[in-house]
Write a structure and sequence with these properties.
With 112 residues, the protein is of the alpha+beta class. The chain contains three helices and three strands, in the order H-H-H-E-E-E. A three-stranded antiparallel beta sheet has the order 1-2-3, covered by helices on one side. The protein is globular, with a radius of gyration of 16 Å.
Length: 112
């Protein structure tokens, strides 16, 4: 039996917040599959502009096929990061600017 299990380097708050940039950059590609690939296999998307929970790659991708037509780019307005042992979360408020029509849409987010 091993004497000690080596743990990875703990993630920092800045690194947790940086994960949003990876997701937002995927939005900028306007490729729904790139965005959907940012979600875990067992991830759940509670969409900003839909009341239908998405619980697998196909349904998450389907949501983004339509949402990306609006050319969204997000900005975090309020962020609350929590870091645990081998997990982290960033929850708060973000705002999308929709390039297709210039409108802004605010929503809650939870990244775990």
């Amino acid at each position: 039996m091993p004497e000690e299990i080596a743990m990875g380097k703990p993630i920092t708050e800045d690194e947790v917040r940086g994960l949003f940039s990876l997701w937002n950059n995927a939005l900028a590609t306007l490729d729904s599959k790139q965005v959907a690939a940012r979600y875990a296999k067992s991830g759940v998307l509670l969409p900003t502009v839909s009341d239908t929970p998405r619980t697998d790659f196909t349904s998450i991708n389907d949501y983004f096929v339509n949402f990306l037509k609006l050319q969204p780019q997000g900005e975090i307005m309020e962020s609350h990061v929590t870091i645990g042992k081998n997990w982290c979360q960033d929850v708060g408020i973000y705002e999308f600017t929709l390039g297709a029509n210039g409108k802004k849409v605010k929503g809650r987010y939870s990244f775990v």
